[in-house]
Amino acid sequence: MLKNLKIRNQIALGFVLVLGVSALMIGFALDGLRTGSESFKTYRELARASVLSGRVQANMLSASNAAKSFLSTREAEQLDVFQECFQRALGFAVEQQNNVADPTRRELSRKLVEDLDSYRAASEEVFGLMRRRDAVLRQTLDPQGQRMRKNLTEIMVSAFQD
């Protein structure tokens, strides 16, 4: 069949076939590029969420360690470290909540922010109770203890002298 065509028509037909195959390859390449772009966007979102989750976790660990240290030492610096780390963790959690597109992960991020708010309220209550306890100790128990010790010493000295 191709032998019956003139050389001009054979060249034209070959050119059309090359253009057709090229157009088909371009279509496949554009589809692959679109799919790759969507995959990269998904990967980027997951990577950002992962990094933000890691930052929340790291700051909460630091805050927890500072709170534990404050509970045992009562050093005000540890309380400052706790509050600083906790604020950073909360900031990262809110950023994560605002940047997540997946509804399931967005709901988990929202719940995380709520849990962090509850944690903050509970820790402030504990720290407040500790400050109150320390104030009662300094204002009431320490002076009474010193008076009792002084009175007992006087009784012992008096008993020894008698």
Number of helices: 3
Question: Structural class of the secondary elements?
Answer: mainly alpha
Terminal Cα span: 141 Å
Point out poorly predicted stretches: none
**Main sheet record:** none
Shape: rod-shaped
User: Could you give the count of β-strands?
Assistant: 0
What order do the SSEs take from the amino end to the carboxyl end, as H and E?
HHH
Query: What's the Cα radius of gyration?
Result: 37 Å
Helix content: over 70%
> Kindly state the mean pLDDT as a whole number?
89
Percentage of residues in strands: under 5%
Give a structural overview.
With 162 residues, the protein is mainly α. The protein has 3 helices and no strands. Helix 1 runs antiparallel to helix 2 (76-99) and helix 2 (76-99) packs antiparallel against helix 3. It is rod-shaped. The mean pLDDT is 89.
Give the helices and strands, then pairings.
Blueprint: H1 7-73, H2 76-99, H3 103-161
Q: What's this, in brief?
A:
With about 160 residues, the protein is mainly α. The chain has three helices and no strands. Helix content is about 95%, strand content about 0%.
Features:
single chain, mainly alpha, 3 helices, 0% strand, rod-shaped
